[in-house]
């Protein structure tokens, strides 16, 4: 798996565009895009209170999910007396469910807030 990830990363770096309009290098050369200071953009975004609210909410939700994923197998094994294999499979289903729930939540949010 690590070799595949490295190959994909190199291919993305060499063959993909930075934005739908093309590569940053080409856009800078044509004058269609100006270079921006990433740190200044970060500081500007960090002044918005909504960014901090999202940071806290997402951190809490994702942190809870990580703790749940890490402890569920032990919980199922200890309290429901399942085998280690069944406990691991059942716990992994929780993480799999989150993949769909997170995606579906984003889609529903987008649809609900169409202007």
Summarize the structure.
With 115 residues, the protein is mainly alpha-helical. The chain contains 5 helices and no strands.
Features:
0% strand, mainly alpha, 115 residues
Class by helix and strand content?
mainly alpha
**How many β strands by DSSP?**
0
Q: Which stretches are poorly predicted, pLDDT < 50 over at least 5 residues?
A: none
SSE string, helices as H and strands as E: HHHHH
- Helix-residue proportion: over 70%
The major pleated sheet works out as:
none
Mean pLDDT: 91
Cα shape: extended
**First-last Cα distance:** 42 Å
Number of H/I helices? 5
Radius of gyration: 21 Å
How much strand? under 5%
Plain-language structure description:
It is a single chain. By secondary structure, this protein is mostly helical. Helices cover 79% and strands 0% of the residues. It contains 5 helices and no strands. The chain has helices spanning 2-15, 24-30, 38-46, 49-80, 84-112. Helix 4 runs antiparallel to helix 5. The protein is extended, with a radius of gyration of 21 Å. The two termini are 42 Å apart. The mean pLDDT is 91.
Write the layout of secondary structure elements.
Elements: H1 2-15, H2 24-30, H3 38-46, H4 49-80, H5 84-112
Helix pairs in contact: 4-5
């Amino acid at each position: 798996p690590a070799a595949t990830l490295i190959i994909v990363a190199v291919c993305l770096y060499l063959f993909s565009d930075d934005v739908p309009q093309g590569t940053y290098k080409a856009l800078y050369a044509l004058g269609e895009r100006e270079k921006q200071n990433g740190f200044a953009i970060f500081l500007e975004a960090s002044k918005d209170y909504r960014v901090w609210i999202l940071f806290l909410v997402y951190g809490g939700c994702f942190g809870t999910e990580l703790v749940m994923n890490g402890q569920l197998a032990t919980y199922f094994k200890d309290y429901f007396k399942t085998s280690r294999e069944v406990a691991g499979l059942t716990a992994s289903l929780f993480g799999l469910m989150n993949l769909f729930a997170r995606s579906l939540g984003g889609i529903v949010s987008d649809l609900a807030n169409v202007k």
